[in-house]
Amino acid sequence: MERSEKWDRLQDDCDLLVIGGGATGLGIALDAATRGLRTVLVEAGDFAQATSSRATKLVHGGVRYLANGQIHLVYEALRERRVMLRNAPHLVHPLGFVTPAYRWLDLPFYGTGLKIYDVLAGRSSLGTTHLLSAQKTADAVPGINLVGLKGSVQYFDGQFDDARFALALARTAEDHGAVVLNYVRCTRLVQKNSRTGGAILQDVETGRETEIAARVVINAGGIFLDSVRQMDDPRCKPLLKASRGTHIVVSGEVLGGSSALMIPKTRDGRLIFAIPWMGKCVIGTTDIPVDSVAMEPGHSQDEITFLMETISPFLARPITHADILSLFSGLRPLVTGHAASTAKLSREHHISASTGGLITIAGGKWTTYRRMAQDTLDFAARNGLLQMRHCKTETISLHGAPAAAVSDDPLMRYGTDAAAIQYLQQQHPEWSAPLHPRLPFTAAEVIFAAREEMARTVEDVLSRRMRALLLDAHAAVACSGRVAGLLAAELAKDDLWCKSQEQAFTQLATQFYAI
Hints:
Distance between the termini: 43 Å
Strand content: 15-25%
CATH superfamily of the largest domain: FAD/NAD(P)-binding domain
Structural class: alpha+beta
CATH architecture of the largest domain: 3-Layer(bba) Sandwich
Radius of gyration: 22 Å
Largest sheet: 10 strands, mixed
CATH class of the largest domain: Alpha Beta
């Protein structure tokens, strides 16, 4: 469906209007559509542009939450992890993690804790936790520091591409009849008989506005949800406290294998991971309280130094600033509490309704997005705002899900849509070459992103449809001009648009450089 057709459909009344196109909002849209509800979702920017594309790329139960005693959260997340892997095998896969021990006592200590993780997983287990000798550890992670290494504990969790998983949710919701639009902003909530009964929506690209009526409005604004709550009640107190998590990206040769490192003890109390991802190594994350929210929260040199100093003792070759190909930061929308630090605030979700009926869903984590969506719609039904209908998403495959994933397929992240990319490359051989020698992405993928994946900007393509900006920021900038030209041809834009897009992307990319 063309964007203009989707906009025209906003003139119709709907059962449910979802504000926010991150993991939570998209999960709600899919759940609602599969329950037979007339559903509309709008996102002021691009899908998953903020927190939901800045994750550590893990689908996990949360080893840290186990240490904090949040057993029920870990139990739920481990089951949801299995659902994500089953419903999107092209985007989620098991990953082995090595926890190195440089003291003999660490082996039984780490092993016991991670065995409990296994027990909680039960039939949802992705692999059995076991001890590795120093040599077996080196086989799993060739880049590990062998000096004093006694062995390790290996356990298994899941890994995914967060931004593309969010896109799959959006497309699956559309497949089931939802209207899903990016770059559409809610500028005002509409009150009818003292109840929130719709919203004024503005197309960010054109400035045109429309009013939509909805039986129920759900605020899934993520880090921006308090601003939506204030539209409903200017006197409401903030619900969220945000913290910044920063990651650095280096060459995959730093680890040298297909297993990840998990470092359980750091000076700020967090776990640090070094994870192979799309041929690179992602290292993170930090936990820094922030006073305000922003789409691009930036980072500090202290965070970069902390990550390098924390991971380097475990590597055969310590990393330096020169090794960093890119870095990215995101804000966690944590529900306010009385913990001493944001690292200890709960990742459990919070659902509430205002006196006017606006439903807000806050907190949570990527792995439990589906359960958060189910709980939100069930909450609306229990409060008489919607008819109670059975949730179906536990067994609904996401858009593109193949019968079985092919791990060595370079287009595996597209699932069954890979055939469409290959067809474009066959029809236009000039679209089959990499956009840049250091990136695995082609022009055909840019065309597909514009035609089928709702990409509207160079950033949409290079940051989220492809993950070029996160993998190698300088290489992404180098090919941004060509991407702008390809997009312009698809979206009927002129040369001025191309230049402004290239300039905007180049400016954005400076925040991904390790200066």
